[in-house]
Design goal:
Number of strands: 23
Helix content: 40-55%
Radius of gyration: 28 Å
Length: about 800
């Protein structure tokens, strides 16, 4: 994250740029720079440090000119040297300066292209310099001596065609004015404002509206994803969509932590979004522990205050300020290394003992990233006399790197990576840990703007909106010898590359198409695979619906025939949970945005069949992930989940055929991603997976399907009812498989199955378990009377 500002005014803009950077300082405290144009001369000053330290009286006196740009730097790529402070400048063509917020994910490929094709040399490790030179090259291709906005728009179209990632850009073009543009997904924010003067309108673009507020600019709108804005020296404003339409997915972490609460982003008040985060979190706490023993709610200053207030009100307990913050210590989130962060937390916060003594306190923070700060704060609360310390995060677990401009670089530094929520709780030393659900976080933000239906949630979900391959094409992660204090010298470690291992030929070989290709022609390279995990991952990553079904049946047949092995040379190492292969449609939205329709109409029956088909499609992916991910279990485990994958693919085929008979197809309607989100939560532990996917989510299908069958028969659609009856009969065995292996894993660990299951349900899925229950089907699936009584009482 960085802060950017661009202004075209009627008088010198240097002082206004300085003021704007001071209120964007929270976005970057590493370096700052301002570039202005006075006549035909570009004036530039930049250095490491805070805005107030970089600019003195002499440097500000030199920054004359009535149009300019500014930047405060927070390095996510490149090095920590002052040479990489922004703006960057190139003299050809015309003279260009550029400042950038975000991160390109194909920087290495672009750097090579610039050298080999464009004959341009990159002098630093910054992707912003790469972006500037791409823009310069595309502008030079226009081959016009007199530059017009039309030429700039064409050049930016070329930039979008080459650059992948999240980026918001302000640039100076000498003789023309200020140019601003945003990536086609709108990941990083950019807002446009106008200010009326006696000499005419002045325009500004900035990362956040708070900068416009300070300068007296009226917020006009956000720059649209893929849009470019040219502000001419005559005060004219030109705008053009320069990239094909893509899903609009702004970064949700802006609302959680990065942005100031007094900013508006995408017409959503950051302040109100954080209030709603607290409300949703409070409701979750009441669902999980309606008889909680919390004595008071305390925020971790400052960003969590807004969420903590409504949380305390809804819980009906006092809100207290238990920590005093030292205003002269920077954000520990962006401190260089763990050692420095550890020291900074104690310098940054001091506990008020009277507020903690002999109390059960609920500490609220906006998010938990590395866990270093949270662990120390929890210990500080204990040291101050707290009887119990609960910890609540207004955001879901941060399990994956962010590759779009937020410093979450190495998965090994993320406390929730490869850990269940119980394990994170133990790591932090809390008596209870509560995370926000991802659906609730999305709803908290989307409620402010009905046009927002999706977000970049990659650090929570592992789903990269530009695509997995593009999002993981940055440079390799740092070696083990990389100094952690060299924060600026490392790039964000990408989500694991979904690679294939090509072993030497073996006596028995199953040849499968490499996952990720989209056709069956020459580009669909074939590779030999002999282990079940390898082909399971291949099936999991297949995007084409028909091919996923066919390959699932093929692999199941190969396994049953004994032509695949559990262990072999091509056994792939377990990766972080990959994004499963899916077609481009259906569009995924939060569950509450799905329309509810009665079964009396054809449209209503199509909606029901489509929803169940989406569940079955996800169930195929879940089964293959259970096969691929969890190693070292008895062979019968893999027999069960290969069989489940085969059944679910067949069920999907039945539903797809029935949709076709109604004149519809899978993908015609939106759907939600709840099943796979539970896979993400349980990726680190097969016991949690068996408990929460088959025994909670799939068991819910046993409860509701009989009613759907009855309503379909009443609506005169017996063929659809018959399909659901087949699915219901066979799903009992799937839930039973979950029971069997959950019980097996509990026995291995010396755990009581009933108590363990209920504890996991209360923590992760209490809202998904509600009566009425299908007692006969659940009994067949392995639920005993004591479990059912406990579930009934939840």
């Amino acid at each position: 994250m960085c802060g950017i500002i661009g202004i075209v005014g009627r008088t010198d803009v240097g002082a206004a740029l300085y003021d704007a950077l001071t209120v964007l300082q929270h976005r970057g405290q590493d370096a700052a720079g301002i570039a202005t144009v006075d006549g035909s001369k570009l004036r530039l000053h930049k250095a490491n440090g805070l805005v107030r330290d970089v600019f003195g009286e002499a440097s500000m006196r030199n920054l004359t000119g009535r149009y300019g740009i500014g930047h405060c730097r927070y390095p996510t790529a490149g090095s920590e040297g002052s040479a990489e402070a922004q703006p960057f400048y190139v003299n050809s063509p015309f003279g260009l300066a550029l400042a950038h917020n975000g991160n390109l994910t194909n920087t290495d490929a672009l750097r090579q292209e610039l050298f080999e094709q464009d004959r341009r040399h990159i002098n630093t490790g910054s992707d912003s310099e790469v972006l500037l030179n791409i823009f310069a090259h595309e502008l030079q291709l226009q081959a016009h001596l007199r530059l017009e906005p039309e030429h700039v728009f064409k050049a930016i179209g070329g930039v979008h065609g080459r650059c992948v990632g999240g980026y918001a850009v302000v640039a100076l073009v000498l003789g023309l004015g200020v140019v601003a543009f945003r990536d086609p997904h709108g990941i990083r924010p950019l807002v446009l404002g106008v200010r009326a003067t006696g000499e005419g309108d002045e325009y500004a673009v900035a990362s956040e509206s708070v900068a416009l507020d300070l300068l007296g600019f009226r917020r006009v709108r956000d720059v649209a994803p893929g849009e470019a804005v040219v502000i001419g020296l005559d005060g004219s404003l030109h705008a053009r969509q320069c990239a094909p339409a893509r899903p609009h997915t702004p970064c949700i972490f802006e609302y959680v932590y990065l942005a100031r609460p007094d900013s508006m982003i995408e017409d959503v008040s950051v302040y109100k979004a954080r209030l709603r985060m607290g409300e949703y979190l409070a409701r979750k706490i009441l669902r999980l522990r309606p008889d909680h023993d919390i004595d008071c709610v305390m925020p971790i200053p400052d960003t969590s205050r807004t969420a903590a207030l409504p949380l305390a009100n809804i819980l009906g307990v006092p809100y207290r300020e238990g920590f005093v913050k030292n205003r002269y210590v920077g954000r520990t989130f962006i401190m260089p290394g763990q050692g420095e962060r550890v020291k900074s937390v104690r310098r940054k916060l001091n506990a008020i003992e009277l507020e903690f003594r002999n109390k059960v306190v609920l500490l609220v923070d906006d998010s938990i990233v590395r866990g270093t700060t949270s662990r120390q704060i929890i210990q500080m609360a204990r040291d101050a006399g707290a009887r119990k310390v609960y910890f609540a995060s207004a955001a879901p677990p941060v399990r994956y790197p962010n590759v779009y401009g937020i410093d979450m670089p190495a998965v090994s530094e993320l406390v929730a990576h490869d850990r269940s929520e119980v394990e994170v709780q133990q790591q932090l030393g809390a008596d209870w840990l509560i995370y926000q659900d991802l659906d609730d976080l999305v709803a908290s933000v989307a409620e402010g703007n009905e046009r927002l239906s999706a977000f970049d949630t990659s650090c929570f979900s592992g789903q990269y909106v530009t695509g997995v391959e593009e999002a993981t094409s940055t440079a390799s992660p740092p070696s083990a010898t990389t100094s952690p204090s060299r924060r600026g010298a490392r790039r964000p470690e990408p989500a694991p590359r979904l690679q294939r291992i090509d072993p030497a030929p073996r006596s028995r070989v199953t040849t499968m198409r490499a996952a990720g290709s989209t056709g069956g022609g020459p580009a669909a390279a074939s590779i030999p695979m002999t282990t079940l995990a390898a082909v399971a991952l291949d099936c999991l990553l297949e995007c084409d619906v028909a091919r996923k079904r066919a390959r699932t049946a093929e692999v199941a047949a190969e396994w049953r025939a004994g032509r695949l092995e559990l262990v072999g040379d091509d056994l792939p190492a377990v990766r972080d949970l990959p994004v499963p292969g899916r077609p481009e449609r259906p569009v995924l939205v939060p569950p509450r945005q799905l329309a509810s329709r009665g079964l009396g109409s054809v449209e209503g029956r199509i909606a029901l069949l489509h929803a169940v088909a989406h569940i079955e499609f996800n169930a195929v992916n879940l089964a293959w992930d259970a096969v691929y991910r969890f190693r070292g279990l008895p062979r019968a485990y893999y027999d069960d989940w290969v069989s489940v994958a085969d059944d679910e693919a067949r069920h999907f085929g039945l539903l797809a055929a029935r949709l076709g008979e109604h004149g519809a197809a899978y993908g015609d309607l939106p759907a939600h991603n709840g099943l796979w989100e539970m896979a993400v939560r349980t990726a680190a532990d097969p016991l949690a997976r068996m408990a929460l996917v088959p025994r909670v989510l799939e068991a819910r299908g046993l409860d509701v399907t009989p009613g759907m069958i009855a309503r379909l028969r009443e609506a005169g659609d017996p063929a659809s009812a018959d399909v659901l009856a087949v699915i219901l009969a066979e799903e009992v065995a799937h839930v039973a498989a979950g029971t069997r292996w959950f019980t097996h894993l509990c026995a291995e660990r010396g755990l009581a199955p009933g108590a363990t299951f209920l504890a996991l349900v209360r923590q992760h899925a209490a809202g998904a378990v509600r009566p009425p229950f299908n007692h006969p089907a659940r009994a067949q699936a392995g639920f005993d009377a004591a479990e059912m009584a406990a579930l009934q009482a939840l």
